[in-house]
């Protein structure tokens, strides 16, 4: 019942727009700060790895192993990926473009930050992002998704009820 309300109700659509823009602002501002101010994930990663030891570790061993053996060797890649990802997620949420995908990527980033032992506002943002993902297209109706999603649906329109989706041209060719 709540799921249906989130997906179809006009009041929910407006509330989700406020939530979406708030989340988008958080992401885009932090991403922009990292893009323009220089960003090095190395210290954060080392801190997260250090939190995986001791009597009550804040970071699980499997996540620390991933950070140590995958993220740390590829820190230059993460130095670009994190700020760019934050900025693009924020842009998508603010503009309401590919809203569900942007919120899903925001969930992935917030989960990674939480796994790394950083609480801050990540848990609150993750919860709000779940609402945006569950609401699906209703979260982006007041945004560019209102125009983009119908276009994509027409572009990838299914031919009949069975078989894979096929690309159909928007304009039919006339033969005379």
Question: If you had to describe this structure to a student in words, what would you say it looks like?
Answer:
- The chain is mainly alpha-helical and 176 residues long.
- Helices cover 67% and strands 0% of the residues.
- The protein has eight helices and no strands.
- The chain is elongated and about 65 Å long.
- The termini are far apart.
- The model has no long low-confidence stretch (mean pLDDT 89).
In short:
It is elongated and about 65 Å long. Helix 1 crosses helix 2, helix 2 runs antiparallel to helix 5 and helix 6 runs antiparallel to helix 7. The chain contains eight helices and no strands.
List keywords for this structure.
176 residues, mainly alpha, 0% strand
Strand content: under 5%
Give the low-pLDDT segments. none
| Radius of gyration based on Cα positions | 20 Å
The total strand number stands at 0
What is the terminal-to-terminal distance?
A: 53 Å
Helix count equals: 8
Structural class: mainly alpha
Query: What is the string of helix and strand elements?
Result: HHHHHHHH
The description of the largest β-sheet is: none
- Average predicted confidence as pLDDT: 89
Q: Percent of residues in helical segments?
A: 55-70%
Shape: elongated
């Amino acid at each position: 019942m709540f799921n249906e309300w989130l997906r179809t109700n006009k009041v929910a659509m407006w509330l989700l727009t406020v939530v979406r823009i708030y989340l988008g602002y958080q992401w885009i501002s932090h991403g922009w700060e990292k893009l323009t101010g220089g960003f090095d994930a190395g210290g954060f990663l080392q801190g997260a790895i250090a939190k995986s030891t001791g009597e009550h570790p804040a970071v699980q061993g499997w996540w620390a192993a991933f950070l140590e053996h995958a993220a740390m060797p590829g820190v230059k890649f993460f130095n670009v990926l994190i700020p760019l990802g934050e900025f693009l997620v924020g842009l998508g949420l603010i503009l309401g473009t590919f809203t569900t995908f942007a919120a899903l990527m925001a969930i992935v980033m917030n989960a990674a930050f939480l796994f790394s032992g950083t609480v801050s506002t990540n848990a609150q943002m993750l919860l709000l992002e779940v609402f945006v993902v569950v609401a699906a297209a209703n979260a982006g109706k007041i945004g560019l998704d209102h125009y983009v999603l119908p276009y994509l649906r027409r572009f990838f329109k299914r031919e009949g009820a069975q078989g894979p989706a096929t690309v159909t041209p928007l304009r039919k060719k006339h033969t005379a």
